[in-house]
Design a protein that fits this description.
By secondary structure, this protein is α+β, with helices and mostly antiparallel strands. Helix content is 24%, strand content 32%.
Length: 99
């Protein structure tokens, strides 16, 4: 069975919505990092946890079957459309092996 890793990076304000989205899509397994910093490559404010840029991001990594990826990406796209200024992005890559 082919698997994909999906990394979702989002503003911490989106945390409950992201977990709800995963539950709704029946994606049980994930790893979450509560506080990550960064800056988008095209738009969006930096999230650096500093006095100047106080907001922070979180990230979620899940490994799912190929067939679930389009549905998850569509859900991320819809969530982003609700509040683009808050921001959420997803990145996908192949999982070559796991044990």
């Amino acid at each position: 069975m082919k698997m994909k890793a999906v990394l979702i990076i989002h503003n911490q304000a989106q945390a409950e919505r992201v977990e709800y989205m995963l539950d709704r899509l029946n994606i049980r397994g994930f790893t979450k990092w509560e506080s990550v910093i960064g800056r988008g490559s095209e738009t969006g404010e930096p999230r650096l946890g500093t006095h100047t840029w106080p907001e922070m991001n979180s990230s979620v990594l899940t490994v799912i079957e190929d067939g679930k990826v389009p549905e998850l990406l569509e859900a991320v796209k819809k969530l982003n459309a609700i509040s683009e200024e808050v921001g959420i992005r997803a990145f996908v890559w192949e999982v070559l092996a796991s044990v």
